User: Which sequence fits this backbone?
């Protein structure tokens, strides 16, 4: 398996989109074939599910429904796009993955970390990120950024207390998976944030791009 799976996580407005673009440029320049994607979304079916999840008119959506829709979108995303790309040796950069569900639904919605991980285990099979960059930014700052840039979706419109619970959830996950989740200080300039990301990435690449983990079918 020569593919590399990179994910970016963090509060809304933390600068993930900018850093994904810079990372894609860098990896392409040094010879990698890169696919950029997002969650929820990434495929036609997954994008349709995304529109349901984030629609501001769907205020009555149950928390469990939300969690299952995220997992359904992710299952299609992994099967149709992520897994085939990794099997063909490409680098996949995804704006969010399972960690988002763990903190937004597991912690923010109070459904439980273990329960959300169990729901998603079947959705992703053996596909897991090789490295995750956690964009660390105060949620209040991030939401203000988003509000100034565009209209907010259903989750972005949640109360600030919800976003802070998500923020604290990310911190817990980073402590739980320090070998994979790398904290990035997103308060810095975009150039400095990019340098932080490349510092972690170079360490990973130096260990070799040949990862022995299997991305096989569900078992």
Assistant:
């Amino acid at each position: 398996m020569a593919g590399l799976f990179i994910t970016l996580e963090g509060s809304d407005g933390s600068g993930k989109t900018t850093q994904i673009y810079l990372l894609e440029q860098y990896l392409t320049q040094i010879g990698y074939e890169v696919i950029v994607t997002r969650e929820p979304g990434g495929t036609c079916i997954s994008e349709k599910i995304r529109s349901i999840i984030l629609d501001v008119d769907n205020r009555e959506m149950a928390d469990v429904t939300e969690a299952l829709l995220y997992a359904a979108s992710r299952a299609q995303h992994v099967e149709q796009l992520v897994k085939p790309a990794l099997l063909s040796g490409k680098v996949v950069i995804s704006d969010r993955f399972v960690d988002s569900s763990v903190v937004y639904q597991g912690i923010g919605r109070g459904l439980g970390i273990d329960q959300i991980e169990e729901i998603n285990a079947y959705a992703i099979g053996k596909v897991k990120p090789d490295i995750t960059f956690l964009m660390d930014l105060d949620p209040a700052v991030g939401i203000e950024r988003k509000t100034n840039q565009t209209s907010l979706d259903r989750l972005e419109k949640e109360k600030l207390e919800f976003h802070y619970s998500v923020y604290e959830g990310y911190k817990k996950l980073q402590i739980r998976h320090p070998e994979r989740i790398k904290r990035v200080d997103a308060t810095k300039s975009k150039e400095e944030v990019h340098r932080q990301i490349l510092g972690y990435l170079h360490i990973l690449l130096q260990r070799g791009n040949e990862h022995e983990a299997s991305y096989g079918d569900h078992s």
Summary: The longest helix spans residues 63-87. The radius of gyration is 17 Å. Helices lie at 16-29, 44-54, 63-87, 98-108, 113-124, 139-149, 160-176, 190-206. Residues 209-215 have pLDDT under 50 and may be disordered.
